Every structure is written in C-alpha cells, then in structure tokens.
Amino acid sequence: MQIGMIGLGRMGMNMARRLLQNGQEIVAYNRSFDKTEEIMKEGAAGAKTIAELVKSLTPPRAVWIMLPAGDPVDTAIDELNELLEPGDIIIDGGNSFYKDDIRRAEDLEGTGINYVDAGVSGGIWGLEVGYCLMIGGPEESYSYLEPIFEALAPPEGYLYCGPAGAGHFVKMVHNGIEYGMMQAYGEGFAILEASPYNDSLDHSQIAHLWNQGSVVRSWLLELAEDAFGEDPKLQGIEGHVSDSGEGRWTIQQAIDTDVPAPVITMSLFSRFSSRDTNLFSDRVLAALRNQFGGHAVVSSKKKKRK
User: Fold this and answer.
1) Distance between start and end Cα atoms, the chain
2) Is 82 a residue of the active site?
3) Is the pTM of this model over 0.70?
4) How far apart are CA 47 and CA 54, in angstroms?
5) Contacts 24+ apart (CB under 8 A), 36-41
6) DSSP 3-state assignment of 51?
C-alpha cells in the first residue's frame, strides 16, 4: 500500500523504515531535506514540498503526519486541505489532544477528506518490535488503512477504538498509567537504595529477578535492568523528569468526569518537583524515559546525591 509520511523525527523515521521493511510504499517529506534523503536511500520516494508529496500519491491518497502536537499539525492539515480530494485520508499519528482531533474532523467534514487519529506507543524500540496503535475516526477509513496498521504493529497490536478522537484519548490514558507505573518503580528502587542492605543489592539483578514470574514484571523493568546495567547508581544523569502533556490531559479528564485518579495526579506533581531536586527515584524515571523513548536526560553536575 502507498502512504505519504510527513515528519521524519525520532518516531516518524523509524515508522517509515518499518513500513518499507514490510513491503509498503512510502513517499516522504521532512522540513529539512537531509532526513528525506536518508530514507530515500532505504527505498522511499522523496518530496521537497507537501504539494510534491501529494502529487506523487495515487488516489485515494493516505497521508500520515508525525509532527509535534498543536500548531505544526494544524498547519500541515491546512495545507493538505488545499491539496487533497474527497476520499483521501489524513492520519495524525503524533501525541495530539483528543479534542483537537474532534475539531479537525469537524473542520474537514464538508471537504470529503477523512481524518484518522492514531495513538502510537513503542518509542525508539518500535522499529524492531512494532508499534502499539490506538485508532479513531471513520471505520471505513480504518478498514482501508488496515494494511498499514498491520505493517507497523506487532501481532494483535492495533485496535479501532471509535470515532474521531478515540485513538488519542486511549493513548492519553495509556500515558497517564505509564506515569503512575514509572513513579512506583522509581520509589521502590529508591527505598532499596536507601536501605541497610544497599551494599549487597544490585538493582539491575533485582529488576531482572522481578521479571521472572513476579506480579510486577513488565517491559519497563527490562529497561530498568538495562539502565542499571549501564550505570548502577545512575550517577551520570540528573533526576530531571520532563512531561510531554498526556499526563496533564489525563488528569484534566479525570477532573472533568469526577474520576478519582490520585496515583496519576501525584506522579505528575512528582515530575514537577524533580526539576528542583535530584532524588534517586527521579533518576530512575529519567533513565526509563531515555531507555524507552530516547528522551533527553540532563547530565549529572556531580552535585551531592540525596
């Protein structure tokens, strides 16, 4: 199947690679053409403008946007709206707010252009193991695009979640849960680090042990094992933990619908406090974000550890 890809950043580039590896045809565009040239060497067709990308696609066209949430996505959609035809499909695979999806779908309704939102999880490991996809929009568009979803995802790794916004809504809650899980792991290892048994404990070995049949086993623990294997006390990074928005949106949704969510809320507030402290638990979180998503870490300034 043929698809246009707008945005070749950390996620978009590897998604394009996985699609190529699974026999899909890619027409790629990136604001800086060097990224486009890179994926062209791997078999994609390249475009220097969005207009050129659209012209290179055979109707009905499908264009996947992998850009930062907010204005960059709206700007790309506005341009595509002038270039695409009824029956074509725009897919937003970034971390957009689900209410933006609803607005965009409504704005495009009179044009005949279909809008699909795809929540994507998998980080820098998605190229190798596949991306978990949570999809919203018209069901007929989902069915048409299914070969693309099947190529990107591992077995049973994609799901139609409902109308416009449903995919990004499910991804938003997924990331809220992720915040809480990471916070619990960070606090647990901090308790181990501060214990009287610290000298005899190897955090990497403990993470490995807990993944052997325990009820807290997970991919995050596998990544913790790797992070501790590289830096046993995580002394090479600061405990500065950023947030990319989904945790805030999840908490706001909980407030709007009167759903108690103390764990997710506390985990977000702990990320705020991490920016003024350097707790061991926060260094665990920073290390995990780097392991699964390639998120930047703040290098240690060698200040006194807490």
Assistant:
1) 54
2) no
3) yes
4) 9
5) 36/8, 38/8, 38/13, 39/8, 39/13
6) helix
pLDDT score for 306: 37
Catalytic residue among 35, 171, 187, 193: 171
Q: What is the DSSP string of 87-119?
A: T-EEEE-S---HHHHHHHHHHHGGGT-EEEEEE
C-alpha Rg value of the chain to the nearest Å: 21
Rounded CA separation 266/18 (Å):
36
CA distance 288 to 180: 13
Q: How confident is the model at residue 304 (pLDDT cuts 50, 70, 90)?
A: very low
Q: Average pLDDT of the chain?
A: 93
Reply yes or no on whether the pLDDT at 299 is more than 70. Answer: no
Of the residues 178, 193, 225, 246, which is catalytic? 178
pLDDT of residue 296: 73
pLDDT digits (tens, 9 = 90+) for 256-289: 999 999 999 999 998 888 877 788 888 888 888 8
In the chain, the percentage of residues whose pLDDT exceeds 70 is 97
Residue 68 tokens read as: 């930062």
Which of 171, 173, 194, 186 lies closest to 267 in space, CA to CA?
186
**What span, in angstroms and rounded, lies between the C-alpha atoms of 195 and 189?**
10
Does residue 41 have an active-site annotation?
A: no
The DSSP bridge partners found for residue 29 are 6
Alpha-carbon distance 124 to 288, whole Å?
12
Q: How, if at all, do strands 114-121 and 132-136 pair?
A: antiparallel
